[in-house]
Design goal:
Chain lengths: ~250, ~325, ~290
Amino acid sequence: MLEVRGLTKIFGGLRAVDRASLEVAEGSIAALIGPNGAGKTTLFAAITGFDRPDEGSVRFCGADITGLPPHLICRQGMVRTFQVTQPFAQLTVRENIMVGAYLKTPERDAAAARAEAIARQLGMGELLDRTASGLTVAGRKRLELARALATQPRLLLLDEVMAGLNPSEIDALMPVIRGIRDAGVTVFLIEHVMQAVMSLAEHVYVLSYGRIIADGAPQQVAADPQVIEAYLGRGAAQRMAGAAHA
Amino acid sequence: MNRLLPLGLILLVAVYPFIFDSNFAINFGILVLFFALIGQSWNIAGGFAGQLSFGHAAFFGIGAYCSTILQLRFGVNPWLGLPASVAGGALAGALIALLSFRAGLRGSYFALITLAFAEAFRIIANSLAITGGGVGLLIPMQRSAANFQFPSRIGFYYVIAALAVLSIAVALWLKRSRFGARLAAIRENEDAARALGIDTFREKVKVMALSGGMCAAGGTFYAQYYLYIDPAVAFGVDKSVEMLLVTMIGGAGTVYGPLIGSLLLTLVGEVTRNLTEAQGLSLIIYGCLLVVIIGFLPNGLVELFRMRRRRRA
Amino acid sequence: MDATILGAAAINGLLLGGSYALVAVGLTLIYGVLHIINFAHGSLLMLAMYGVYFLLTKANVDPYAALPLMVAAMFAGGYLLYRAVIGRFSHGKDENILLITLGLAIVLENIALFFFTGDTQTITVSYSYEMVALGPALVPLPKLVSFLASLVLCGALALFIARTDAGKAIRAVAKERHGARLVGIDVDKMLAVAYGIGIACLGAAACLLMPSFYVTPTVGHLFVIVAFTIVVLGGMGSFVGALLGALIIGLTESLAGLFLGEALGQIGIPLVFILILLFRPTGLFGAGK
């Protein structure tokens, strides 16, 4: 469904993303992980039109969307959430979600109904009339998710949707994401919360210093020495193996 | 919002001249409704869509000059000149928006460039023969409804009332429509809006066109009411500031904010005029009000009503 | 087009630009450090000019002699204004500061209108009409003094910012507010000081301008657009840019007046402003947005 080939993004002299290639299959949950500063959000931004890639291409459902503006990419069915939540602060939860719903539903009452349904689906039914600025972090993450869902996407890019949540909130959100996929929306996550990655993702890509250094099933990637070194430093893989044998 | 409020308002506005029928009262009513109209036009762009403009007089002046020039130089009836003015204002709004937003101007930069455009228009109007240069244009008095000049003020009152009520209807429509929801999204967070599929550039151009057209209608009314316009009056900073003040103080982004702000400011204006001969007192008060409101009541006076309702609930 | 007329216009333009320089440099400092677009800049200049006017007419103080006093007074006024109003009421939001400085401008202008009426006031001093020959141009002495003094004061300000501890503190706050706080700089005080210095420039500018200009409550409007144009042209935070920008604007104004006539010539400045914002918002010597 999503094909990224050789994508490169350069800031000044720095290759923030360096010839990254990946594929997300329709109906799957895929994850992008990597240490802080690896370039994950930059990659998302380049895929979704917030930044122009300097090299490489992005294809979505067979169509070339490289460099298209964000609103057109959203209309094609790929929508992203933001790492630092971007609520419409002075609007209510209902109004926030309606903005997303209006993409495919021009009529006000229908959009409101859709917004309410999605809010309930995500457990936000009680908060519909609350102003977005009054939500907790967990609430805002859900709102971000709800808004994106309201646009009836085919592919949902979630940027660290679990960040800032406590363990019980994380546990509550995971089935929600699975539910979204089961309802027919492909999901591509950037995540740091390994628990979520391990149990949700079917395919994992690892980004380090802008390059894809590994990909595969979660267990496979977790055992990959290059991945271990990216997170824990050079020689860590050997030390871990040595400690295991000692 | 309350369903009865708009109907009650229309009723009140309709019967006002029969209850308060002195020349003074009717003129007062006209002023309140006039500033409510042009304030609302600013509100559409600044309050609803978050695009603060410091040069809205550009559209006001275009409206005033458009219908007046058509009338004086080409013999076009001012009633026909009115839609022409609205079209001119809308076109100017769209053009300024196209240029500014294409260049990616936001926030303070947008405010400043609108100021520069208004100033540029003022200078042009001051220099051309067709606009009467610095002397301005005088509309010959021909009191007849057919000429958009009324034998009594009541005629003007009902015209401005109709325009003001129409502007409120537009605001109400925005509150309930997809377009309005998108504008609110753009105001709150433009990047998030784009991520949700909104073509923010196009929506902003549309709102500036709407706002410009509405403001231009006010310009035509003004020209017909006072029968005189010149570059300073039409394009001057004063008008831009008054539109902004009325809305910010009353409540930007609300339907009735401009009306409330206009009522308060016109009252203050009347009171200060009776207190002292010296000019400027009312604006000192307005300016202080603006600063205080930004500091303590960023949502304007409308917030006072909301707060009272919330406490009751 | 006679070369001497052109030359005279050019020279007058440059001198005019020099007068604008101080006004623009103050605005550049305020924008560069506080990242606020000080709408009240024009009205504060207007108040300073009235100050110079009254110092001469009521206390017989020569405008040039009044310079130290005006600079000190305007610094104090700016400092207090920031501390008491701007800093406190803006809650940090950019949009709010724009509106608050606009509100201030409205208040100041109308206070002047209320107390001083709308009459245009000018001052005449012994050297008001002394002329100096400068190449093809015959320029009034005050304009030449204004130009030279302006350059000197801009230089002094640049040195202050570059060499003194206070100046370094201000630059630190401008670049990295939180970091500055962490190393112990009293950020709020420095912001107020920066604002004060920016306004102090207006005190000096007023002393230099009054002998050859006029004052009314709305004279600030003129200077606001000119100052903003220069700041944007010069690159939003670059002193040298502001200085060069001022000279360019002065030239533009003078030459536009020459070629387009007095009425239409005024369009030079808003036109430059619009063009720069649309096509090169980082300015000619860009320090960037």
